[in-house]
Structures are given as structure tokens and as C-alpha cells.
Amino acid sequence: MATGAYFVTKALSLLNIRAAETALEPSELQDGLDLLNDMLSNWEPIYQLGFSPIDNLTDEVRIPRIANKAVIDALAILSAPEYGKKVSSELLASAKLSYENMINAIVFIGDVDFPSTLPRGSGNQCSYDAWLNNTFFPEKDKRNF
Known about the structure:
single chain; 145 residues; elongated; 2 domains; mainly alpha
């Protein structure tokens, strides 16, 4: 599992905040952690990733691995204004793709059972004798017209 520091460091590296050999300031890491907690707390009721806020940068962020890239990209986009950075079109395209991949992986739409009170067709079923089969609702036996 990835830690809070992993997400914050990856997101800020997408914005070229620090050079690879320069460590992030503790205040930058803490601000990133706060933003990560806020963002994932907002996502949790919608996507139900299993996230619970973390206190330390070394704590594991418990979300599905398929969501990692979407979280990193979204965190980078949310962090950009704080550092006076512009979000590149490449980052936006990557964020859109990773977000769609996450949604496709975690959201399941099952089969829909239609109620028997739902009208079918235009009100009549066509058969050899249209006058004998004029039911508008499947459960009704009597003619509707």
C-alpha cells in the first residue's frame, strides 16, 4: 500500500515543485497531506473507496490500487494554484484518463428489473388479434381502453 508521503511527493513532482535531489519541506508535505485527506474525504461518499483520513505521512492510504494514479493526478491539479503553477494539458489528459479508469473499475451497474407497473410499448401488444391483447400493464388482465 502507498503512504501519504508517496501521494504528496508524486503529485508535487508532476508540477516540478522540487528537483529530484531536493527534499520537500515538512510544511509542503503537511499541506499536501491535508489536501489529500480533504480530497479523498469528499470522494469517499461517492465512490466508496474504503478511505479513512490519515494522521501521518507514513500511514498507509487504504484505497484500491487502480485509484492511485487518479488520486495523484487530482492532487497535483488541486495543488497547482498554491504553488503558482499552471496545469499542463498533458496532466489534464492524464487525470481524465486515470479518473475514467478508476470509475470503470470500481462502479458496477447491475441488471435492472423493471416493475410490472411500468407501461410497455405504446399500450398494446400486437398479436394475431389486437382486440384480445390490449393490456398496457403486464399484470392487468382487463383491457385498458
